[in-house]
Amino acid sequence: MCAEQASLPYLLRPRRIPRWRRGLLRITISVCLSWFTLGSSLSAEEPRDFSRISESVVQINVESVAFSYRDPWQSPQLQGSGGTGFIIEGNRIMTNAHVVSGAVQIRIKRPSQKKDYPARVSFIAHDCDLAILTVNDPEFFQGARPLQIGSQPSLNTPVTVLGFPIGGNRLSITRGVVSRIDMDVYSHSGVDAHRIIQVDAAINPGNSGGPAIQDGKVIGVAFQAITSGENLGYLIPPVVVERFLKDIEDGSYEGYVEFGVLDNPVQNPAQIQALEVSGRPSPYFGVQVYRIIPGSTAAAGLKPGDVLLKINGHEITGEGDVELEGTLYPYLELVDHVFEGDPIEIEYLRDGKKGKVSLKSRRSDVLTFKRRKYGQPPEYYLLHGYLFQPLNANLMDAMDRQWASEGRIQILYRYHYHLFHGLYREGSVDVVLTRRLAHPVNAYGDRYLSQIVESVNGTRVLNFVQFAKLVQEQRKKGDVVIRFKDSEVPLVLDAEQLKGGADQDIATRYGIQQLFRADGGGK
Fold first, then answer.
1. What angle do CA 338, 341, 345 make, to 5 degrees?
2. Both 239 and 272 in a single domain?
3. How many CB atoms lie within 10 A of CB 204?
4. Which candidate, 36, 60, 468, 373, places its Cα nearest to that of 222?
5. What is the DSSP letter of 401?
C-alpha cells in the first residue's frame, strides 16, 4: 500500500508523516548489511525442534551493484554484503528484498554445510521488503525441512530470532518479546506502509531476513530497526508474508493496490454538526476525504468532502481506525491485503446523505517516483554540460542535504508535499537541472542550477521521457528554450552550438560514455 510522505530524507532524519503512519520517525536498515539479532537465551523451542529449525536457516552472501545519482554516467560500484534467509515450502528461500537488491552474485549455505551454493532471485517485492531465492542444486536442500508460516503473535509473548550476525559465520539464536503491532513505513522503499511487529530487544547489526519463531513456526521476518530508541526492532508479520506468497503464485509479482485518499479525522463536535452526521454512536464518526489520488481505487467513486463511515462492513472511528479481531488498526489495513480487481465496499456521507459504492481495487503509478529503485541505472540527460534528472527518491537521497543547505525550498516542497497540495498529474514527475559540467558553451550558467523544468520551447514538461523527446526534437529545428518554474529567465541553447561538437567534447573531457539514459535504454 503506497502512501504519501510529507518529509522523506532517507533513514535518519525525522519525518512529518500522515497521522496513520506516525511511530517509526527515524528508521534505519543497513541495506544488504542489515543483520538483526534479539538478545536473550533460547528456551521457547525444544532442542530437537530447534535443531530441525536451525537447519532450515540460511546464510546469504551477496555481491551487488550500486549507482551514483550525483554522477549518473559512472559505472556501478561493486559491494559485498550479507544477510539471512530460511527455507519454505517448494524448495524456496525467503529473505528481505534489501538483502539481495542489485545482486549480481548470491551464494548461500546452511549451518551444517561445508560449502556454499549459488542462488538467484526468483521474485522480489521492494514495496514489502521480501524476496524469494532458488537454488538449482538439490544437494543444498538435503536434510532440511521447510519452515511453516504461523499466525500473528500476541502482545507480550516471546519470539526467537535466528540469523548470522556480522563478526562470525555461526548461527546466532536470540530472543525478544512482542511489544507492539501497528501499521507503519517500510524503510526499504521509503513510501510503502504495511503492518509491522515491534519487539523490545537490543538491536545489533544482525540477520535481516532471518525468521522469528514461535511455537515452531515463523511468525515474522526481521527487517528493520529504530536508531533513536533502545530495544526496538521490527518484523514483517505473517499477513504480509502470506500476501506476498499468494501474489507470486501465478509466476509474477504485481504488488499492492492504492486506495488513494488523503483524509482528516472527524472528531470536533462543531465539525460533526456541520457535516450533519447524526444518529451515529461515538466514536464512529469516520474520516473526511480532502484529496483523491488520480488513477487510484478511490478515484472511481469517491469525492473530496466525503466522510468515510464504513469499509468492507467495518465502522471507521474518528481517528481512522477499524476493529479487527479485538484490535484497532488504521482502516487502510483492510485495503492492504486485497489484490487488483477485488471489490472494496465503502459507506460514506456526502452532502448530509448516506451512500454506498463498490470500488474495484487497482494500482496506481502516481507515487512510483517516491519508491526507491535498486540495481537500475539512473536516468539523465547531459545537454551542453547541463545535467537534467527526474526528481525521484534516489535523487532526493543523494541531494536532499545539499538542497536543504542551499535553501532550495521549491524542490523540497514539490517533492515532499507532492500529494498534500495537489502538485501532480497522473504520469507526471518533475525534471531538475542538477549540475553544470564547466565548458565554454555553458559559461555563467550556474544561475539555472537546482531549478525545476517547466517547458521546452513552450510545451509543458510532464516527465523526464517527454522532456528528453522534446529536446531531441527541438534541437533539430533550431534553438532550444528551456523555462523553469517561478523563473523569468530561460535557458537558451543556440542552434548552431547544438549542431557543433560541444557535447562530444564534454563527454571526452569528463570521461562520459553516454550523454543520455532513460528507462529502457539510452544513447
1. 65
2. no
3. 18
4. 36
5. H
φ and ψ of 483, to 5 deg = -105, 150
The Cα–Cα gap between 145 and 167 comes to 27
pLDDT at 520: 52
Q: Tell me whether residue 369 is in a domain.
A: no
> Is 376:66 a contact under the CB 8 Å cutoff?
no
CATH number of the domain that 312 lies in?
2.30.42.10
H or E, element range at 245: helix 238-247
Mean pLDDT of 431-440: 96
> To the nearest 5 percent, what fractions of the chain are helix, strand and coil?
20, 35, 45
53 neighbors 147 (Cβ within 8 angstroms): yes
Same domain, 464 and 506: yes
Residue 503 is among the residues annotated as catalytic for this protein = no
Residue 306 class from Cβ within 10 Å (0-12 exposed, 13-18 middle, 19+ buried)? buried
What nine digits make up the cell of 363?
494500482
Q: Phi, psi at residue 503, to the nearest 5°? A: -60, -45
Which of 34, 64, 189, 208 is labelled catalytic? 208
Res 41: pLDDT: 37
pLDDT in tens, 121-150: 999 999 999 999 999 999 999 999 999 999
Q: What is the mean pLDDT of residues 49-61?
A: 91
Choose the catalytic residue: 129, 247, 306, 400.
129
Query: Residue 46: enclosing H or E segment and its boundaries?
Result: none
Domain span at residue 268? 261-360
Count CB atoms within 10 A of the CB of residue 154: 11
> Is 320 inside any structural domain?
yes
Q: Are 335 and 259 in contact (CB under 8 A)?
A: yes
In the block, cell 528456551 appears at: 43
Q: What's the structural domain count of the chain?
A: 3
H/E element holding 240?
helix 238-247
Contact yes or no for 2/371 (Cβ under 8 A): yes
Burial 92-107 (b: 16+ CB within 10 A, else e): bbbbbbbbbbbbeebb
Do both 77 and 179 map to the same domain?
yes
Taking the C-alpha atoms of residue 384 and residue 442, their distance in angstroms, rounded to an integer, is 7
Q: Distance between CA 109 and CA 60 in Å, rounded? A: 7
Higher pLDDT, 204 or 222: 222
Which amino acid makes up residue 212? A
Cis, bond preceding 283 (omega within 30 deg of 0): yes
- Distance (Å, rounded) from C-alpha 98 to C-alpha 208? 8
Q: Which position among 64, 81, 98, 306 bears the catalytic label?
A: 98
The pTM is what?
A: 0.86
On whether the CB atoms of residues 269 and 224 are closer than 8 A, the answer is no
The residue behind cell 565554454 is 440
Residue 129 designated active-site: yes
pLDDT digits (tens, 9 = 90+) for 9-36: 332 233 333 443 433 333 333 333 333 3
